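Please complete every field before forwarding. Incomplete forms are returned to the sender.

SECTION A: IDENTIFIERS
Entry label: holo-169
Bound molecule: zinc ion
Molecule representation: SMILES string

SECTION B: INPUTS
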Amino acid sequence: MKCPRCGSGLNRVQYEGVRIEVCPGCQGEWLHPGELQKIVEHHGKVFTPDEIASLDAVNKEIFTAEKDDRDELNCPCCQSMRMEHFNYGDTSGIILHKCPECGGVWTDKEQLGKVERVVDGWKKRLRQDSKKYGSILKKVELKERQNLDKAVSISHFGFVNAVLRRFCE
Ligand SMILES: [Zn+2]
Ligand SMILES: [Zn+2]
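SECTION C: PREDICTED COMPLEX
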């Protein structure tokens, strides 16, 4: 399978039992249909519903809507099928591409960088109120330590998914 962005051959990687294709050229990542959902479900178990609600409030402060990325990309699986793009979680400024035919999801390295900035923002805000958010912050840091040896940047992506579930529902 070839990268829809730069045309390099995609490398297959396993992440938490999920198959992901990673581009060695531009570091974009392709999730096969239904795999984003699996990652969301896994990370949803890390947090209680109350904690997810708390993080949701933090997200509203951090996220700023940005101009949509208008790049037109074809699905690497269906090839001639043009992917749709959308602002993840409505206001995150994180733009994902999704194939309307097979349901696979493409994410650019640049977009994953935005996700990392969101997680950094969480840590900053959560520290300001350690009594209220202390237990959440511990989980954030634990999760990050677990991810240190992961070659796949989708690990951060999946973590953010835990509080942005509404996209998958
Ligand atoms: Zn590429
Ligand atoms: Zn497709």
